[in-house]
Design goal:
By secondary structure, the protein is an alpha+beta fold. 63% of the residues lie in helices and 18% in strands. Strands 1-2-3-4-5-6 form a 6-stranded antiparallel sheet. Strand 5 and strand 6 form a beta hairpin. Helix 1 runs antiparallel to helix 3, helix 9 packs antiparallel against helix 10 and helix 9 packs parallel to helix 11. The chain starts with a helix and ends with a helix.
């Protein structure tokens, strides 16, 4: 049995590596598309692009390793069943439980690795991603603003007709409050510069007009010689680089500190923003635990599906993997949204996909033993 287990484990490790590379590549392509606005800033080189993708890779691998574990187990055990090797092993007295031991070992190894990975490597990668994206924006002459387009900057929308060497022409700046435009600023020209001490982009508009739009129709027009407008780098990062939320960049100890500290705050001092931060910290901590354990569940589920379906073809295994993972991440997204709304506890919402997968796996195990 030891020889057979070593052979299954070795084959599964190769399949896990294959699946992880393929699925990570697909996720990185999607992330690369999300970063097109940042690359349009004009200062992103091949080196900085590779650095960004390398920094986001640890977070991507948290999602791809459960997929790779499911695919690997399904391919290896499906091939054993398809080649009638499973029948020979069962005739020799090996039970389904014994045959699942190699999958259990791989699943436990992957779970332990991802628990450490989610706490140490992934948050560090996200912090590095933010630093690199911030440097790209600071080094850019156009700070990601597109000429002839409406550029969203928080509550403001900037629309220059052209941008050359940090100089904008025919500028329109719209401010929104309560879902409506509250002011319009127009200027024939303006410049863009980076303020190191403020960590912000400074827009300097020259000889323009400010038109305040009031809800009571008492509008106000002002002519100015110079108008200075500041946009924080973190705000631009949210628009151009779409980084993960702050809690994703923290270690487990920091998340636990937030979770344990919030109940001790007096009710009179609790604010909505504090509760939102507390709730997001609980969601993130549970997600970091649920995804690693998904590796164990998906490995065992993939092994059972491979034995039960008697198919080890790559096309079939990839199709089944994509379908199962699609359902899993739909449930995970639904649970996360429910937890963010406060409708149910975070640990229940985030762990729902794992529970559903365990129930499905138990059913397949029951059907396999009946065959």
């Amino acid at each position: 049995m030891k020889t057979i287990s070593r052979w299954i484990i070795f084959d599964m490790l190769k399949a896990v590596a294959e699946g992880a590379v393929l699925f990570s590549f697909i996720f990185l392509l999607k992330r690369l598309y999300d970063l097109t606005d940042l690359f349009a800033a004009g200062s992103a080189t091949l080196i900085t692009t590779c650095q960004l993708l390398f920094a986001i890779l640890p977070t991507v691998m948290l999602l791809t390793f459960p997929m790779a574990s499911l695919l690997a187990a399904m391919m290896v055990y499906g091939r054993i069943a398809q080649d009638n090797e499973l029948t020979a092993l069962q005739a020799a007295g090996y039970s389904t439980r014994q045959l699942l031991v190699p999958a259990l070992i791989i699943g436990l190894l992957m779970t332990g690795l991802l628990l450490w990975w989610a706490n140490r490597i992934a948050p560090k990668g996200l912090r590095l991603f933010g630093d690199i994206a911030s440097d790209i924006i600071q080094d850019s002459n156009t700070v990601g603003l597109m000429p002839g387009a409406f550029n969203a900057l928080g509550n403001f929308t900037l629309a220059p007709s052209s941008i050359e060497s940090g100089t904008m022409r025919n500028i329109r700046l719209f401010e929104q409050k309560d879902g409506r435009i509250s002011s319009i600023i127009s200027a024939p020209s303006g410049t863009i510069s980076y303020a190191l001490w403020e960590n912000a982009i400074i827009l300097n508009l020259e000889k323009g007009n400010l038109h305040k739009i009031s809800s009571d129709k008492n509008n106000l027009g002002i002519r100015f010689d110079a108008f200075h407008f500041s946009v924080g780098i973190p705000e631009l990062l949210g628009v151009l680089a779409k980084p993960e939320r702050t809690e994703s960049q923290l270690r487990n100890a920091d998340l636990l500190f937030t979770i344990n500290t919030y109940p001790q705050i007096p009710e009179s001092q609790k604010k909505r923003d504090l509760y939102r931060w507390y709730n997001r910290s609980k969601i993130e901590l549970n997600r970091r635990q649920a995804l690693p354990f998904a590796c164990l569940i998906m490995t065992l589920l993939g092994a059972l599906l491979g034995i039960y379906s008697n198919r080890g073809k790559r096309s079939s295994c990839y199709a089944m993997t994509i379908f199962i993972i699609f359902v899993y991440y739909i449930l995970l997204s639904f649970g996360k949204s429910t937890a963010q709304s406060g409708s149910a506890p975070a640990w229940i919402c985030i762990w729902i996909p794992n529970v559903v997968a365990m129930i499905f796996g138990s059913y397949i195990y029951y059907r396999t033993n009946r065959v």
